[in-house]
Write a structure and sequence with these properties.
mainly alpha; two-stranded antiparallel sheet; 15 helices; disordered N terminus; steroid metabolism; EC 1.3.1.70; oxidoreductase; lipid biosynthesis; NADP
Length: 370
């Protein structure tokens, strides 16, 4: 899992590479640094102390397991409430983020780059032999920096991988709300903006309602920690037809059902391998690999749901330009690359069991296509 994901979540889009390069000049304007610093400090403090369900992670190779405090929904609601009150008192501006979008993108990019360098240096100096912190160095500097060399690096007792995933999701919602405030102030609110705002807000809130499912995903259990749309709608007014709105809703609903359903089935299976899947006993290969429900349709069916959701976030922008489709294209590339690495890892780990699973479930992501 790389911190590039943080960039794509915190700053969903940009209008042009020219504007981006121009904004690099203002990297260290105090406003941008202050916004990011306050945001991360808030998440670190309240994420550690607010009440929430303590969810055990998967058992690691050394027999240990991390525990995750799933209080993201409470942290998010409290943050939105505090910002709303502060805006009412004229302490902060609701459009502060949308007004500084490109500068925040630049600052976040530099922050992510520096964090990955620190993680690499810290990992190289680690003498911890536990599964979470033991460094896995290949000797290739670029490879080790990009992919990361520790499974679950920590800072002041905070699991950084879980922390940055949460930061990306919360940051995405704050960006959207700021853009929504700007469109209301400018009287440019239309069906495209409403559709995008509803889809993304539903997706983000659903993530935090079901945050514990994240603890059993590939990102958390296997990836090390190493290294897009609202602004387009503000600057390009898009009017959707009724048919387009219905089609967009259909893509979102199917994507959500597949994405959430697949992740939930896997999470429940890991906690209780005998739990019913779609009302029937699960089909299991080698007592380890689930081949029922969505996982009997494709070996990475959750990726299909994620891609459909990403597409539904871009469709409100229309099809007049490829720019709004950066995120689904980026995600498609990322997930195919990740799927290939996961296939190689599973083939090595499960051997003949994995070969049997592949025969039973031949499709990787999209049945009859890939």
């Amino acid at each position: 899992m790389d911190l590039g994901l943080l960039l794509s979540s915190l700053i969903p889009s940009w209008t042009s590479f020219y504007d981006l390069s121009f904004s690099l000049v203002s990297l260290w304007f105090p406003d941008q640094v202050c916004i990011l610093a306050v945001f991360f400090i808030y998440l670190a403090i309240f994420g550690s102390f607010l009440p929430g369900k303590l969810v055990p992670g998967v058992v690691l190779q050394d027999g240990t397991r991390l525990h995750y405090r799933c209080n993201g929904l409470l942290s998010l609601l409290l943050l939105v409430m505090v910002l709303g009150i502060a805006a009412k008192m004229d302490v902060v501006s609701l459009t502060a983020i949308s007004d500084r979008g490109l500068d925040l993108l630049s600052t976040t990019f530099l922050f992510s780059f520096l964090v990955t360098l620190v993680l690499y240096a810290t990992g190289c100096n680690s003498r911890n032999q536990g599964s979470s912190l033991k460094p896995h160095v290949t000797g290739n500097l670029i490879h080790d920096w990009w992919f990361g060399i520790q499974l679950n690096p920590q800072f002041l007792g905070i699991d950084l991988k879980f922390f940055f995933v949460r930061a990306g999701m919360m940051g995405w919602l704050l960006i959207n709300l700021s853009i929504l405030a700007r469109s209301i102030q400018d009287a440019t609110l239309n069906s495209s903006m409403i559709l995008y705002q509803f889809f993304s807000a539903f997706y983000i809130l659903d993530y935090f309602v079901n945050e514990e499912y994240m603890t059993s995903t590939w990102d958390i259990i296997a990836e090390s920690l190493g290294f897009m749309l609202g602004w387009w709608l503000l600057q390009n007014k898009v009017e959707l037809t009724t048919a387009s709105i219905i089609a967009n809703c259909f893509v979102f609903i199917i994507g959500y059902l597949v994405f959430r359903g697949a992740n939930k089935q896997k999470h429940v299976f890991k906690k209780n391998p005998k739990a019913l899947i779609w009302g029937k006993p699960p089909k299991v290969v080698g007592e380890k690999l689930l081949a029922s429900g969505y996982w009997g349709i494709a070996r990475h069916c959750n990726y299909l749901g994620d891609l459909l959701l990403a597409l539904s976030f871009s469709l409100p922008c229309g099809i007049s330009s490829p720019v709004p489709y950066f995120y689904p294209i980026y995600l498609l590339t990322l997930l195919i690359w990740r799927e290939r690495r996961d296939e190689a890892r599973c083939a090595e780990k499960y051997r003949e069991i994995w070969a049997e699973y592949r025969r039973l479930v031949p499709w990787r992501i999209l049945p009859y296509v890939y």
